[in-house]
Amino acid sequence: MMHTTGKSPTTLAGNGGAPMIEITDLQKSFGDNHVLKGVSMSVQRGSVTSLIGPSGSGKSTLLRCCNLLEIPDAGDIRLGEKKFHFGASHRPRSDRQLAAYRAEAGMVFQHFNLFPHMSALQNVIEGLVTVRGMRKTDAKEVGRAQLEKVGLLAKQDEYPNRLSGGQKQRVAIARALAMSPEVLLLDEVTSALDPELVDEVLAVVRGLAADGMTMILVTHEMAFARNVCDQVIFMAEGVVVEAGRADDIFLHAQQDRTRQFLARYARTNLGERKA
Asked: Which domain CATH number covers 253?
């Protein structure tokens, strides 16, 4: 669970044991824009956490910091046994260290980021070959298994320009999963899709949650956040306003700012909580 103080993150009750991810007092600025103002979080293995809040609240920046695509200005990040401290005196990380960490934190982007000159299968296996050093024949076996998991094995030889937006996003998910990450980070993965394609991507994410994949996702799909996520974190202006179990946030929010957000963005589109 996240806290604005960032000094002693607690965990949402889940599978027990030490959290898979711990982030402490994370700060990030871009010039004079202080985007993250001391955020802490912990995530249990096998849980799904959603980051919700208005645009500009720091959600995507936090997710990119989790993957070290953005290097925080201060704070600590631990993923499993890998830990980084950030601050004025920290030593620069080598490209090898960053690549090893990012391989454990798979990232799926809003706009897919597929290589247009590569087939679906080639996109999925590229990291296995270039980062993991896997033989191409072995990588193809892994890639086909992941494409089958997202329902796209029949499209393995198609290039991105022959795929729908939903299919592209499912290929991007398969690409991230092929690296066997400890956690999957999803940054508004349905925002660039036509409405009729959203459900096919959410169905894949729902299946991954059922399989016990640890995930942190930024989303504006409030019904999905309520029905699928274990932990919901509401952010505004670079801090965590409120965090807790999905039902606690959606049904019993304690902070006025949270209630106002949900009234505006979510109340007319909440599904029934699954039993």
From this structure: 3.40.50.300
